[in-house]
Amino acid sequence: MSFSIYDITIPVFRRGFTVLSAVLDKGLAHASAEGVDPATYVEARLAPDMLPLSGQVQRASDTAKACAARLTGLAAPSFPDEETSFEELQARIGRTVDYLASVDPAAFEGGEERQVTLRSRAGETPFVGRDYALQHALPNFFFHVTTAYGILRMKGVPVGKRDYLGF
Amino acid sequence: MSFSIYDITIPVFRRGFTVLSAVLDKGLAHASAEGVDPATYVEARLAPDMLPLSGQVQRASDTAKACAARLTGLAAPSFPDEETSFEELQARIGRTVDYLASVDPAAFEGGEERQVTLRSRAGETPFVGRDYALQHALPNFFFHVTTAYGILRMKGVPVGKRDYLGF
């Protein structure tokens, strides 16, 4: 038995969004319980030049849907980065998960050999699909989920490692 | 073409440790340049009840070597959590990578069907190898690498997303 490129990406993202959604729920509940404006959590950052919580969720969303698109050659929906509340971030997660669920696993066939070129300020980075999945998409996705978790932990939200792992 | 359980774990960890080692190097260089005691970075945390930088590196090490051991049935070396300096954390990473390199990829054959039981304060969690790899080992490994990065970012170390991704 072995793993397809679908196995190691889309179900992992979907599970990650379940975790992220539950952690955000605890963040909102904590803000309410403490009488804190939830927007202060949504705007919080680990460092002044890092993205706030909202940006971490938006980049997790983009990473996952772009991965599905790049490995299949299909277009992914574009979601504007306009979320400013927990409710809107949850809706963004919901739209992302709906999109991931809509992509036929069969469309990923051969995705490990597909040419993927990432463009950033530093230029272009060419990948073959398998390396893109393991060296970019998965690490990047977990980066944003973990950083979202870390921001809420820094704000005192009572979440623990089991919330992050989802067990 | 598909992926073996070895493909989706050990090379990913080894690459993650290359990234983590380079990020730690930048942390030490920044402390030196700023005239800050590097130990203050090694002991820094995102939240009072989270592990410090040293603990994040130790848990990344444990996650990776335990994964190799659990998926193969071989014993992993035990490393005491005694690191208090960047140099010692780099040595811990080196010992971990040496161990990962020493395990024969052939020993992972059938690892996706192996029974794995994790024990924590909350009790026992049973897994089959494939779920353990995708739902626990990989997310947990990236959690600790990302949190180590986040701690250094919080301390003002000039590292960016490309350092984390390793491109």
Automatic annotation (TrEMBL), chains A, B:
Coiled coil ranges: none
Pfam families on file: DUF1993
Gene3D superfamilies to which the protein is assigned, alphabetical: dinb family like domain
UniProt-listed SUPFAM superfamilies: DinB/YfiT-like putative metalloenzymes (SSF109854)
Signal peptide feature range: none
InterPro entries: DinB/YfiT-like, DUF1993
Protein name as it appears in the record: DUF1993 domain-containing protein
Species for this entry: Kaistia geumhonensis
